[in-house]
Amino acid sequence: MEFYDCYAQSYALARQRFCQTAREKGADVFTHVHPSLSGPQGEELAVDVACFGPVTATRALLVISGTHGLEGFLGSAAQIAWLKGGTSVLAEDVRVVLVHAINPWGFAHLSRTTENNVDLNRNFIDFSAGLPENPGYALMHERLLGPEWTQAQIAAAQKAMDDFAATHGGDALFDTLARGQYSHADGLNYGGTGPEWSHRTLEAIIHEHLPAVRKLAFIDWHTGVGEYGEPFFLCFNEEGSPLQARAAQWWGEDRIRGQLPHGRARPNYQGLLFHGVQSFVGDAAVCGAVVEFGTRGWHMRRMLRLDLWLKFHATPAHPGYAMLQADLLDSFCPFDQVWRDNCLRHALEITEQALHGLQDW
Ligand SMILES: [Zn+2]
To answer: Less crowded by CB within 10 Å, the N or C end of the chain?
Structure first.
């Protein structure tokens, strides 16, 4: 399998390749078209779903790509790699559901967030219970995100973070920046004020395509955390729980327990897609992880701000626009063949490990 047969150069091509490969492999393919928005070239935006195995299955593997928009370049390739090279005959009572580009606007427009600047992986809170607070974020917001993308602005943002860390510590800084905030719609890791279209679409997909599931294995492909080209697991099953032990059995103790993203204490992430999936399947068991592939380590902080600057302040007429957009894409899915090959190899193995674990569950 060649890496260029799995990765695509655009959302539209990724989608076409995913659907075509899934059909060739005998999947039932379903499409949820975005009702109002299109891609930068006017192309349709949609979440595509490929299903294998009976809809009545009580055990299933759910694999999601593109939660963070442009991270879908890797997630899509990982799904296509499994379609091309993974197990083709499933055990009885097992279903596989691949959800392609759950945040198609972000994927197509090369952004990590949705059409409303929402971090979809902070959007699965219970909105009826009120919005989580993050007062530390408000202290930094103005200094982090200026209207210019200049050396001076980059230095000012760094100073804001250094000042915060000097007072509260590095773990608190990471938690404040990453846990999600619900007060600044033009800010970082914004969780929104209601369920996004992608959120509601995922709920519909799970009810439609996994109506009988009792045991659900889960993989959500991401990039940006971990060593370059290496997988990094964020398992959200409860610490010390039997489900966490099961994930460790599938993927390895050292990958599941005690993982410190960027070497720091794990932020108290709010509104994770994993939590959404858990609520949508009721009392069925969900075992799985966000699987990241490392790219530029801590430098990704700057790229999250660049994503917002390109969205809110830049125009294609800006002299740095194309260069910065290419840099953003490369930071989330490096063009480097070594990185792309390595990630695909790991992704195929990780998917197979989950599937084999599921078949014995
Ligand atoms: Zn991500």
So the answer is: N
